[in-house]
Amino acid sequence: MNILDKIIAFKKTEVAERSSIVPVKLLEKSIYFESAVVSMKDYISDPEKTGIIAEFKRKSPSKGDINPSASVETTSIGYMQAGASALSILTDQEFFGGKNEDLVTARRFNFCPLLRKDFIIEEYQIIEAKSIGADCILLIAAALEPARLKELAKFAKSLGLEVLMEVHDGEELALSVNEYLDLVGVNNRSLKTFDVSLQTSYDLVDRIPNEFVKISESGISRPDTLVSLKQVGFEGFLIGENFMKSSRPHQAAYNFMNEYRELLGAAMGQTTEK
What we know:
The protein has 274 residues and is α/β, with parallel strands linked by helices. The protein contains 12 helices and 10 strands. The strands form 2 sheets. An 8-stranded parallel barrel has the order 1-4-5-6-7-8-9-10, surrounded by 5 helices. The chain has a two-stranded antiparallel sheet with strand order 2-3. It is an enzyme of class 4 (lyase).
């Protein structure tokens, strides 16, 4: 079994246990359940914003502990003050050290789109996402059959949530793209081997239909990489570990985003001159 197989096997047990303890009717009583979502698609597409989805995660299967004592409140507020367009909050505890309360905390202190970053395999998790204040959910093509992914995306849309589908190669993209998606992300890190290659994004960008907001995810550590990715058609960039490995993630994000703005401004100026 690769790590993705292990995570999905664990999720099946976890969701069964959680749904038996906290029924859907209770989730639907949440103060967030009837709230309108903040559109991640709109925020990422806004040319006045950076397009950066700044991620909060304490650990990962590939890196182990990254920043186990980081504060959700301090980091999420700092990310937004630095200029992030949206936040990604890990809610998986077993493998990434997150929890639902992290997203609830981020929601309390930030009026911006929140992505619930988890391994969603059941409708229950989507209802749960809405109940804790998420605006967008992640559906991973490598973890779901195309027909099942489409069912879950349609269900999320029925609750008003937006959907980010994550792919790792052209086959996943071709098989799983459907009309219920809002954003399509290319994960440059293989969930099976953890190898990282930005070439994955460059190879797939033109194969993603233009009706979807295009996101490049993982392995982004330099501001000039964002400029290159933006020039080929990506509007959004999910960055987590690069910020979280700092003792002050929000400060790392601030420095990164300032440099990105300067580089992007210079690149656009050169394009205009040509």
